[in-house]
Design a protein that fits this description.
The protein has 173 residues and is mostly helical. Helices cover 79% and strands 0% of the residues.
């Protein structure tokens, strides 16, 4: 039955429509940037020259966030809205996806806010603490993207009508 969430979860592979595939195709670039962020965070934790490495973290986070923000908006403002018609948004997959978006954005926002005025006087502990915010956001998003690719996008493919899939593509371009 179309719209019933339990009928949307199957193990068979699903060929995604163009719009859903576009959203999925945005993940590798974001994941590559996450890998770079995690590398910097690990170096902040383990390196001798933490100050120099920490100075590279904020620009890397800003670059990542500039790519993440429009991707998130396409998902939240278009896909999640379309799916919520069928499965609601108070509980279930959309609630989880929105929570994870909010959690990652809050962690990144906190890092950016705390480093806005500079960080030349940061202690080693402060640098590690702030790098930890970025790490936590990164791990949240890695898990989040996996859920989207393995659960949410296939569910949307089965749930949305052909017309809705066309509308999705138009609205996210």
């Amino acid at each position: 039955m179309q719209g019933c969430a339990s009928s949307m979860l199957g193990n068979e592979p699903v060929q995604l429509s163009t719009g859903l595939q576009q959203l999925k195709n945005e993940h590798p670039s974001l994941l590559a940037k996450i890998d770079g962020l995690l590398d910097i965070c690990t170096k902040v934790e383990n390196s001798e020259n933490k100050d120099e490495i920490f100075k590279t973290l904020r620009p890397a986070v800003e670059e990542f966030f500039a790519e993440l923000a429009p991707h998130s908006e396409r998902e939240e403002g278009v896909l999640f809205e379309m799916m919520a018609v069928y499965i609601g948004r108070e509980t279930g997959p959309i609630a989880v996806m929105e929570y994870e978006h909010d959690q990652a954005k809050t962690l990144i926002g906190t890092f950016l806010e705390h480093t806005e005025q500079g960080y030349d006087s940061y202690t080693v502990e402060k640098m590690i603490e702030h790098a930890g915010l970025v790490k936590q956001a990164s791990y949240t998003l890695i898990d989040h993207f996996s859920k989207e690719e393995n659960i949410l996008f296939p569910m949307a493919e089965k749930m949305l009508t052909d017309q809705e899939k066309e509308d999705l593509l138009k609205r996210i371009q």
